[in-house]
Every structure is written in C-alpha cells, then in structure tokens.
Amino acid sequence: MARKLPGPTPPFSPPPAPMREARRARVEVSFEDQSLLVPLFGQFDANLVQVENRLGVFISARGNHLQIEGPEDAVARARDVLTRMYDRLALGQDLDPGAVESLIAMSNEPTLEGIVRGQDGGAPIMIRTRRKTIVPRSAGQIPYMRQLASTDIVFALGPAGTGKTYLAVAQAVSQLITGSVQRLILSRPAVEAGEKLGFLPGDMKDKVDPYLRPLYDALYDCMPPEQVERHLASGVIEVAPIAFMRGRTLADSFIILDEAQNTTREQMKMFLTRFGQNSRMVVCGDPRQVDIPGGDAMSGLADAVSKLEGVEGIAVSHFTAADVVRHPIVGRIVEAYEGTGS
Questions:
Q1: How do residues 208-227 score in pLDDT, each as one tens digit?
Q2: Where would you tag: which of 15, 18, 54, 197 has the fewest CB atoms within 10 A of its CB?
Q3: Residues 238/213, Cβ–Cβ less than 8 Å
Q4: What pLDDT is recorded for position 193?
C-alpha cells in the first residue's frame, strides 16, 4: 500500500521567495533487502517523517520503492540520507532517531559516503565494543576517530555533546578487548569539588566519584556492567582524579583526561609526561569553559595545544556546535552562547 502523508510543516518561518521558487524534482530509490524496510522506515514511518520534516521533502512508499519529491537540492540530500540509513542497517548497525539526525546533519558533507561504505573502497570508519558498533555522527568525528586509531596523543577540543570523551572511551575499550593495551586509565581534575571535598561523605573515592561519573557512564555503555565492575576491582580499569597520576609511568595503557581545560599548566605537563611505552593518550576539553581561577590564562589545555600542535605523534581535533550529536536544540544552544561570547 502506498504511504500517504501530509506535506511537512517546517519548524521555522517560511523561506524567502527565491527559495520557494527553487527547481523541484522527483526521484525514486529502491532497496533490495525487504527485511530491512521496517527498521528503515521506523515505527509508524517515524524515520521517513523525520527526513521529510528536516529536509522539506515528501516521501511516498510502494513496496521496496521510495519516491522523493521536493526542491532539487533537498531531494538529492534525502536520497543520500535514505541510502546511508539502509547501508547502516545492512552492516548490522543501529538506526535510532539520533543516527538519522546525524546522517541528515552530515548530508551536505562530501565525506558522508565514506562513513558507511569506507572511503576508496576501504573499511568503514567504526569502533567495535562489546555492546555496540559506533560510527561517526558528525563531520568532525570522522578525522577524530581516525586519529584515535592511529595517533599516540590526541587533543580533542570543543563544546559538550560532540562525542569527544565518549568516542575516546569507546576506542579505549576496543583496544582493551583486542589486547592492544592492558589497562585503561581515565582521569579528570576535580576542580568543581574544591574546598567542598571535605564535606562530602565517605572516603576519597566516594568524594571524587561524582565528578568522574561521565567516564563511568561511557564505560557502562560500551561494556557489560559485570565486566566493568570486574575490571575496576582488578585495576585493569582505573578511574581517578589527575592528582593521583603524579610520579607514575603509564605503559601499555590507554589514558584519557577529561575536562582538561580545568588543569593548570603544571598539572598538564605532569600528566602528559606520564606517557609510557605502547600507550595511547587522549586529552579532552572545552577551552571556552574554564572553571579554574585565572581562566584561560592559567588553563593547561590551551597552553599545551599552543606548544604541541604540529609535533610529530600529536594530533588536535577541533569540534564546533555543528558537531553536537545530542538533541538538535543542544547545538542551537551552544551556537547561541558562542555567539554572545559567554
């Protein structure tokens, strides 16, 4: 039965006259594996409606054939997005609303095809963990994921919600599974605690754990809970504030520093020099959100990037609001704040 839906209602004001007069087009796309059509369309055709509303097109379905109508450029983007959605499903990857939104957001990027199919006929860009297979969800994540797989030290700079820490943890878990490293070291400064540490109940671990919770959340998303608990108990996975790193040499480890903008120059130098043989290190932070006294002038992250960018074996990934992979409104919030310079 043909799918009949009312035309999409854009969530913004009507476009100016020149846009309304854009050339219109109609194309048809077919999919061979009909068993993938149900997850491709989504429950009650939710995925198709999402593409329609975001790109301003109309999609009708008959069997394994989809017809797309609308402005020429939008129709081309919609066809590309639907094809990539199908390719994800064919590779056994999940297709949730977030994944659909990411493909839509990246549909203007020339690298979109390389995400799913792999560029130049190579393997797709992905990270495999025990619980899921992760692919890029923004243009900025593409080079970042390549760097995570090949570079000794990576600095990831940008706003919250861009996947900096999550992808680093996923890569660390993947390398632990394959035996490329023997330990995971996850750290961040407990700057928010400050003098209040003494008023929190429990021992030191209980005091600092609330500030390390984002790292735990990423771990549990990539590994079964029982494995996380077992590795934490045995020391294979260590989650600790940066102060606990002093005097150590971290060999055969994947080391992640989160919220690095809140380190001092001395702390950052100390942390970077913990790097040992057969290790990888990722330093994540948002240079615009410095909480330490003195602000940007005292941040070890900005100082380290200015000194080390371009050094062999070190890579820097820069993310923007366009790379936010949470709800689309988060990206708009980030853009609004960045526009005010706050």
A1: 677 778 888 889 888 888 99
A2: 18
A3: no
A4: 40
Q: What six digits make up the tokens of 149?
A: 């797989």
What the block records as the tokens of 250 is 């971290």
Residues in contact with 182: Cβ distance below 8 Å, sequence separation at least 6, in sequence order:
176, 236, 252, 253
Give DSSP secondary structure letters for 201-217. Answer: SSSHHHHHGGGGHHHHH
Residue 330 is encoded by which pair of tokens?
A: 């988060």
Pairing between strand 253-257 and 280-285?
parallel
Q: Is the pTM of the predicted complex or chain greater than 0.70? A: no
**Burial (Cβ within 10 Å: 0-12, 13-18, ≥19) of residue 235:** exposed
25, amino acid identity:
A
| Count of CB atoms situated within 10 Å of the CB of 204 | 14
pLDDT score recorded for residue 200: 57
How far apart CA 141 and CA 324 sit, in angstroms, is 10
Give CA–CA dist 145/154, Å, rounded: 10
Closest CA to 144 of 318, 322, 321: 318
* Residue at token pair 């150590």: 248
Structure tokens at 223: 């590994």
CA 312 to chain centre: 25
User: Which residues are CB-neighbours of 286 under 8 A, at least 6 positions away?
Assistant: 157, 158, 159, 160, 261
66-112: per-residue pLDDT in tens? Answer: 999 999 888 988 988 898 888 888 878 778 887 788 788 776 654 44
